[in-house]
Amino acid sequence: LVLLSVICCPQNYPLYIRSVPTENELKFHYTVHTSLDVVDEKISAMGKALVDQRELYLGLLYPTEDYKVYGYVTNSKVKFVMVVDSSNTALRDNEIRSMFRKLHNSYTDIMCNPFYNPGDRIHSRAFDNMVNSMMMQVC
Question: Which chain regions cross the lipid bilayer (predicted)?
Answer without folding.
Answer: none
